[in-house]
Amino acid sequence: MTPHQNPAGRHYGMDWLRIGAFALLIFYHVGMVFVPWGFHISLPDPVDGATIPMLAINPWRMSLLFVVSGFASHALLGRMSDPGAFLAARTSRLLGPLLFGMAMIVPPQSWVELTVKHGYGFSYLHFLTQDYFRFGMLDGIILPTWNHLWFLAYLWTYTALLGLALIAVPARLYGSIRRIAARLLAGGRIILLPLAWLALVQFGLLPHRQETHMLIGDWYGHALYLPAFLFGFLLAASPELWAPIRRWAGPAAIAAVACFAVVAAIEWAYPDFALPTPPLALAFIVARTGMRWLAIVALLGLADRALNRDHRLRPTLTEAVFPLYLIHQTVIVLAAWVLIRTGMAPLPLFAALVLATAAGSWAFYLAGRSIRPLRPWIGLRPRPRRPRAALGVAQAA
CB count, 10 Å around CB of 209? Predict the structure, then answer.
């Protein structure tokens, strides 16, 4: 990597954090095949102890993605002429791939799930033409669906709310709100206030609730992810917040590891949330709630201190993230459907699924970026057309 030298103020560490977070999704969703958590396809016998590394990631992985997305949204807003243009650009960038993904990428996941878990006996072609677009239920599965693409629906919703707020709020008032919010999160409050909000949600506002990924009525999910998105936006708008993040990233990392130790110990002793007493259940929930924010502060500190450097691979990897996100879970489900039937042992099966997913997803990106009409539908910016004069010079050369 080369030192950070960017007159435009780009934070390369946030780019690497985004790349790493989406790469982590491949390992996490491959891991879903091995645990009893209701994935589209799973091993007949879950692997003992596989839930523990999953629980190291589960509490914070999606909140981190919303923080990074909020940060990127502010950078995009700075390149737009006004909030209306920003909203239009985000709508085009997010809703097109969401609709394309629901129509073309997600259906194999539902077909495999119905085939493996519900005895669906028809071919994929029959499923796609006769059953997938029924706009109803089939054996308890909503069709059509967005599965892992729920993130795009939520991100567009939060972006739309932010864009409309920026249009409605005068610039002076927006500046005052930004400064007040930055002061509220100064110092140790960068840790305490978000933790207080998460505790209020978990134990006061929405106790015993879980996220549904249905968008409408998912108040628990919105209580987690909308503030994370807005914090990322505020972080980009208020560089002074990096100082408390750098100050508290180390203690946050230690505290996050301690929280995970509690979670792992309880999960090891009482697998699959079979918690025997209310005190243990409370300790488990408190530790997971703490991990959700402490890990994010630690990772933001890492991004700022160690990863704020450029590299020749960064532009390609940054561009590839969106297409890889769209396709990776479908590749996992199809590969698992084929490989589980071979009777492969769990460890080789995990390695084979990771390799198959990485290779298949990267092939999708390479093919998609070379097809000009397909690029916007898989989250890539349209390729600029070369001027005719330049094209003629190139052909002559």
Answer: 14
